[in-house]
Specification:
The chain contains 10 helices and 4 strands, in the order H-H-E-H-H-H-H-E-E-H-H-H-H-E. By secondary structure, the protein is α/β, with parallel strands linked by helices. The protein has a 4-stranded mixed β-sheet, sandwiched between helices. The protein has 2 domains: 145 residues, Diaminopimelate Epimerase, Chain A, domain 1 (Roll), CATH 3.10.310.50; 55 residues, no CATH class.
């Protein structure tokens, strides 16, 4: 399901969004998309324990008879299988993790990606990281200091809120939400004739590449 977020339509929409913002302003946009920002292994533990206790209860109270070895071992096997299966169902991890915890992990991962991708290395400190975390269904915008001197934090926060609201509509919807802030970013940091394209425009993601 996560790969569908970054389908061909979304890739084209993000490319257009980056080009539209960078052609109208001095802002350098980097889009990074991650399948998740943390492991959330507490969800595996919760589901595994529930499955193990459920299996034990069935064996203890069922009319069928089970050997002592089965009663001792089988619930743990069921719990381990259920815990492993959670890796294939990210929606359950999302459900079992409070929104505030997910938000904290997304913000931390976004700040780390901002540094790792060198978004802070532009001459005018004009970088803007669009960090999208699919499991958490959350987006973080991290603006560099030069951009924040021109665009208020409230503008960046509003753009982040709009992007998050569009998340359910898929990657193309998020890209369109970003383009809506092109004029505000242009006003905050107008493009100059000598501006260079200092950061790669390609989408940075960890989804498996789809094959034709």
């Amino acid at each position: 399901m996560g790969a569908r977020f970054l389908d061909d339509e979304a890739r084209a929409a993000f490319k257009e969004a980056i080009e539209a913002i960078e052609s109208a302003s001095g802002v350098e946009v980097v889009v990074a998309i991650r399948r998740r920002s943390a492991g959330y292994f507490h969800a595996n533990l919760i589901v595994g324990l529930v499955a193990a206790f459920a299996g034990l209860a069935v064996m203890l109270f069922s009319s069928a008879s089970f050997g002592l070895l089965s009663i001792l071992v089988d619930p743990f096997i069921a719990g381990a299988l259920a815990a492993g299966a959670i890796e294939l169902t990210p929606g359950i991890k999302r459900l079992l993790t409070p929104p505030s915890v997910r938000r904290r992990h997304v913000d931390q991962a976004a700040r780390a990606t901002f540094v790792d991708r060198g978004v802070h290395n532009t001459l005018d400190r004009s970088g803007l990281l669009v960090y999208i975390s699919w499991l958490e269904q959350q987006i973080a915008l991290v603006a560099d200091s030069g951009l924040l001197r021109s665009a208020t934090p409230e503008v960046i926060a509003a753009a982040q809120a709009e992007a998050n609201a569009a998340m359910q509509g898929g990657g193309a919807a998020v890209a369109r939400a970003l383009v809506a802030y092109k004029d505000l970013l242009s006003t905050a940091m107008p493009r100059r004739a000598e501006d260079l394209n200092e950061l790669p425009d390609a989408i940075d993601h960890d989804f498996p590449e789809h094959r034709a």
